[in-house]
Design brief:
The chain has helices at about 15-30, 80-95, 125; strands at about 5-10, 40-45, 65-75, 105-110. The chain is an alpha/beta fold. Strand 3 (about 65-75), helix 2 and strand 4 form a beta-alpha-beta unit. Helix 1 packs antiparallel against helix 2. The model has no long low-confidence stretch (mean pLDDT about 95).
Amino acid sequence: MPLVRIDINQGRTPEQLQVLSQGVHAAIVAEYGIPVRDYFHILTEHPAGQIVAQDAGLGFERTPDVVMIQIFTQAGRSQLAKQSLFAAVAEKLAAVGVCGEDVFIGYVENTAGDWSFGFGQAQYVTGELGVPGT
């Protein structure tokens, strides 16, 4: 059950925003085998100058079309699985016109006890929801 935050510069249409979100979600579903309805995304548009994504020493520049993605999910997936997910996200976004250098992903792991799906309850801890992968 990943929670995904997508931050972008203003200027895309609502339809383009949905395509970006759906592309990231499709990659996660395909790579991690999560249920299609485990779809929790927050899309935030920023005015020019509020996203800074410079070269990290890899020798390329990003454009104003940069897509900053944070994926929050439970720990336990291999580094190979994560790399496969990163590649799948880049591939899905390339299919809708986002250049590879404009796909930036931060991956944050946590535990089952770090989630509440409502009512102030930790449903994985209480047993209301089964812990994925167990």
